[in-house]
Amino acid sequence: MAKRVVAEFDRYMAHLGDALGYSTRNEHLTEYCGGLMLPLKRKSIEPLAAEADPRNVPAKHQALLHFVANAPWADRAVLDRVHGYLEPHLDLEQGTFWMVDDTGHRKYGSHSVGVAHQYCGNLGKDDNCQVAVSLSLASARGSVPIDYGLYLPKSWAFDRKRRRKAGVPEEVVFQTKPEIALAQIRAARARGVRPGVVIADAAYGSDTVWREGLGELGLPYAVGVLSSVTVWPPGVKPLPPARYRGRGRVPTKLRRGPGHEPMSVKQLALQLKDSAWRTLTWREGTNKTLTSRFACVRVHAAHRDYQRTTMRAEQWLLIEWPRAESEPIKYWLSSLPADTPLERLVDMAKMRWRIEHDYHELKQEFGLSHYEGRGWRGFHHHATLCIAAYGFLTAQRLKEGTKKNPCPRPKTPSLSKDHQPRASRQSTAPRARLDSDAAISNRL
User: What is the pLDDT of residue 139?
Assistant: First the structure.
């Protein structure tokens, strides 16, 4: 089996290599992706170079550094080939999902592109970090990111000196995370990616303009929203436009008044009768079966609709309220059809575990957060190569029907006795400061 997987890995590298522009880059592609799949403690450029050529580490380090940080190959072209390789194994005919999320990479200092004191999701608090927004293609069987872009805070987006030093392209302007995600979705639609149900958490789903953008693209969604999001509950509607009195403009906007006011999704959930709630199981977790109480209601989103002439289309509000909790804990809005069963709504809403699983593996097993360079190009090249390596592993798992990681490459030779790490006192070569990410555990 090992020989077959190695042969398939070589074919996969050749498939990706066609997108690099020059055949001389293929060797570095194979060395880099192969190293990312080995059980190394850290997967920045120097350890990968030491594994690729342990008897000539300085030269190999410079070659891989140029390949990742400077070589002008296109991330989009490589990611498209990863997508093309993996898609036949995902069984998308049984259900396709487009998953939006962002992830933080904790960093020290202020020179790495996009670094700022901002919310870091994996830490659950504000910290000094880089944040990237991604779009993943998923099915019930597996998933892989098909777009990955750095969020550039205002402190970077409007600082010409920092942008120039980090190599930020001129066409990159400040965008909020939802704006980046919507641009990625539009680009995927333009490339002809198979359409799917968009899944996202409340950081995206609570943005009414973002949801309406999905509707304009013809994409259904099941997205988280904050408890404060307002809706029109069943039987409650805004007032029609005021009567025209013969002077000025003809009134066209909806109005609110006593008995014609929206409410927050939390208020609506607390008013539901006991009979509205059902206990459902959606999948087997790591240690137990995942079960909770849910209710769903048909509503109209109400955000600033007093500036509109008509109500927004009716959609589902899905609510989760475990028996052990004093109030509901999660809310989703979904544009799935009115005849969608509650069980399917829950399945859609809970599909986000896939992207969380992807990021866990990309960071813990493939070194997604280990890049130590400071530039825009290197940040994205490293992420693309991590996704490429992860895409191969995912395809092999789906082929074999297993969660285990098939070994894609033979073990590399040991380091020579006279090798000096670049950070050691004997070495005169400079090295970027390492961040304090947790050590990478051996792959299962």
Answer: 95
Structure tokens at 59: 């030269």
Rounded Cα distance between 361 and 340, Å, is: 33
d(CA 154, CA 25): 35
Q: What is the C-alpha to C-alpha distance for residues 32 and 26, in angstroms, rounded to an integer?
A: 10
Residue whose C-alpha is closest to residue 104's, from 127, 76, 135: 127
Q: Max alpha carbon distance in the chain (Å)?
A: 94
Q: What is the model's pLDDT at position 168?
A: 98
Strands, E assignment, 80-124:
97-106, 116-120
Between strands 330-334 and 314-320, the pairing is antiparallel
d(CA 405, CA 413): 21
**pLDDT per position as a tens digit, 19-49:** 999 998 999 999 999 999 999 999 999 999 9
pLDDT tens for 51-105 read 999 999 999 999 999 999 999 999 999 999 999 999 999 999 999 999 999 999 9
Q: Under 8 Å CB-to-CB from 134, ≥6 apart: which residues? A: 100, 101, 102, 103, 145, 147, 148, 149, 184, 355
Spell out a b/e string for 281-292, using b for 16 or more CB atoms within 10 Å of the CB, else e. ebeeeeeeeeeb
Contact in structure between 297 and 234 (CB atoms under 8 Å): yes
* Percent of the chain at pLDDT exceeding 70: 90
Dist. CA 241–CA 249, nearest whole Å? 12
Are 342 and 13 in contact by the 8 Å Cβ rule? The answer is no
The single-letter code of the amino acid at 262 is P
On whether the CB atoms of residues 230 and 302 are closer than 8 A, the answer is yes
192 half-sphere exposure, CB direction, 13 A CA radius: 2
